[in-house]
Amino acid sequence: MSLHAALAAAATLLSAAFAMSTFERWLSGHRRHEAAWTISLAMFAAGSASLWVGAALGWGEWSFKSFYLFGAILNVPFLALGTIELLAGPQHGRRWTAIISLLGAFCTGLIVSAQLLGPIEPDVLPQGREIFGPGPRIAAAVGSGVAAMVIIGGALWSAWRLLRQRRSVGAASGPSGLSPRRLALANLLIAAGTIILSAGGVLNSVVDEMNGFALSLVAGIAVIFIGFLLTNTDGRRNVRALAEPEPWRADTRDRAA
Fold first, then answer.
1. Which of 22, 86, 146, 156 is the most exposed place for a label (fewest CB within 10 A)?
2. Interior CA angle at 89 toward 242 and 83, to 5°?
3. Where are the bilayer-spanning segments (predicted)?
4. Of 187, 216, 189, 185, which Cα lies nearest the Cα of 200?
């Protein structure tokens, strides 16, 4: 197996494991942000699997369209939707769920019906600018760029708020059994992982195309997964903690009231 195929396989398995972890959390608490994260990570897995197929078996129209749709357009907006649901609450979350879902359906139709502008070489990852017209490329730029800013901004704001809050509560743990410092670190790792995923284009210009994208997928999703795991508690406390509101969410509700 070539290096890029092995990296794509690793990204697929890691994304799938991450999606199952967030799905398990959703089953425990049925919280809307965890449903959005599960959908996003399933799309990460689908995009990585398309990269795996293209790297191992050769690129074609539908393997590239699948990779472009799930890996470059849809996954990051749904990850950002989880951030909106978590930080802005269900009222804003429902509105943005409808907006992102409608735009996602539109982009799906756009990619499926898109005409290819040039041939696809089976042994080289195609470039969007060489294969698609402006519509799919604009969708990828807006979907990935704007959504990544939402995720990074939300994670940094949450980390800053938790660290500031630590001055008033000290090192005490919240209802989840986690300290504000640990939760802040988790948010910083999520921001860092998103930056790594967004840097796939830079890696693409430094190493060969398929290796660059695969490296960014593996590294980015691994860093975000570590941040997610830092929010876990041990043993039987997990289920109880997931059902209880986070202290910073409770504080937000108190201020809103």
1. 146
2. 75
3. 6-23, 35-55, 67-87, 99-118, 138-163, 184-207, 213-231
4. 216
**What are the pLDDT digits (tens) for 8-34?**
899 999 999 999 999 998 998 888 988
Q: What is the 3-state secondary structure (H, E, C) of the chain?
A: CCHHHHHHHHHHHHHHHHHHHHHHHHHHHCCHHHHHHHHHHHHHHHHHHHHHHHHHHCCCHHHHHHHHHHHHHHHHHHHHHHHHHHHHCHHHHHHHHHHHHHHHHHHHHHHHHCCCCCCCCCCCCCCHHHHCCHHHHHHHHHHHHHHHHHHHHHHHHHHHHHHHHHHHHCCCCCCCCCCHHHHHHHHHHHHHHHHHHHCHHHHHHHCCHHHHHHHHHHHHHHHHHHHHHHCCCCCCHHHHHHHCCCHHHHHHHHHHC
- Alpha carbon distance 42, 44 (integer Å): 5
Instruction: Provide the token pair at 256.
Output: 């809103």
Q: Please say whether the beta carbons of 173 and 179 come within 8 A.
A: yes
User: Domain 3-252 has what CATH class?
Assistant: mainly alpha
Domain locations in the chain? 3-252
